[in-house]
Amino acid sequence: TDKIILARTYRREFSDLIQVQQEVAQQISEALNTNLNKTSMEKFVLDRTPNPEAYTYYIEGRYAQSKRTHASMQEAIFFFNKAIEIDTGFALAYSGIGDNYTLLIDNGYISYDSGVNLARNAIQHAFLIDPESAAIRASRALFMSSIEGKRADAIKELQLSLKLSP
After folding, report:
1. Cβ contacts of 26 within 8 Å, gap of 6 or more
2. Burial class (CB in 10 A: 0-12, 13-18, 19+), 105
3. Which of 28, 37, 42, 143 is most enclosed, with most CB atoms within 10 A?
4. Which residues have a Cβ under 8 Å from the Cβ of 115 and sit 6 or more positions away?
5. What pLDDT is stored for residue 36 in this prediction?
6. Are 10 and 20 in contact (CB under 8 A)?
7. How many whole angstroms separate alpha carbon 22 and alpha carbon 14?
8. What are the C-alpha distances in Å from 10 to residues 13, 23, 32, 75?
9. Is-contact 140 127, C-beta < 8 A?
10. How far is CA 69 from CA 52, 104, 109, in A?
11. What CA–CA distance (Å, rounded) separates 6 from 124?
């Protein structure tokens, strides 16, 4: 309709970036008259860290991981660890490490014996921090299917993931 529903200017410090994103999402939701309440909005952003520097390292880790080379996946581990240094409770950074070791094993870059416990421990740690995260459940499913060969359990984990975040 070309009708402007929301137009605002935000001038904040970089350290407030995550908070601004949450505010903008809430304002858009209200402007569009959606049914998202405060609890729904909090769940929507739950996976994130309130620290923009940690989140930036996490995103850089996922980008490096997506290249799927041995060198880029080593770089991804560096970025995920930097994110964890800044925010030790950032569950997605731990699941990134778990995914990375799972993929390193799966792609033949490292041996099963040298990576399985690193992958398992990182994913378990992420799950302990946030068992309601769809992304972490998906990471568990990847590990179960690729490393443990538990495909039926992996499917159940993915189904739970989809229920948490359709």
Report:
1. 36, 38, 41
2. buried
3. 143
4. 101, 102, 104, 105
5. 64
6. yes
7. 14
8. 10, 10, 20, 34
9. yes
10. 27, 9, 9
11. 41
Residue 79 token pair: 């970025």
> pLDDT tens string for the chain (166 positions)?
677 777 777 777 766 666 776 677 677 767 777 666 665 555 555 556 778 899 999 999 999 999 999 999 999 999 999 999 999 999 999 999 999 999 999 999 999 999 999 999 999 999 999 999 999 999 999 999 999 999 999 999 999 999 988 7
Tokens, residue 30: 């209200």
The number of residues in the chain equals 166
Give pTM, 2 decimals.
0.77
Written as one letter, the residue type at 162 is L
| Residue owning tokens 């992958």 | 119
